[in-house]
Design brief:
Blueprint lengths: L10 E5 L7 H11 L4 E6 L3 H6 L8 E4 L4 H13 L7
Parallel strand pairs: 1-2, 2-3
Length: 88
């Protein structure tokens, strides 16, 4: 889908832990062709558990499950309002 998409991808919303490929891997892969993409990770694991395994880079946006529509909306808006991070 990414290869066929002609425009920017503004946001990726992905779970941290998934079968086959984790969210951080997916984000890195997507950013190779779309460095402007911002990412919101979601997880049912605690921040401490995720940090303990080094799954996310410092400063990554993590939304804890369960979350409300309002929390999701606020988080997505805050991430989209931030200045784009420089490409890695």
């Amino acid at each position: 889908m990414v290869a066929e998409h002609q425009g920017p991808i503004h946001l990726l919303l992905t779970d941290v832990v998934m079968p086959a490929m984790g969210g951080p891997e997916l984000a890195d892969l997507l950013r190779e062709s779309h460095p402007e993409t911002r990412v919101v990770f979601v997880s049912g694991y605690t921040e401490a558990a995720i940090a303990g395994y080094g799954m996310l880079e410092p400063g990554a946006t993590l939304l804890q499950k369960p979350f409300s529509i309002a929390e999701l909306t606020e988080t997505v808006q805050a991430v989209l309002d931030r200045e784009a991070a420089p490409p890695r």
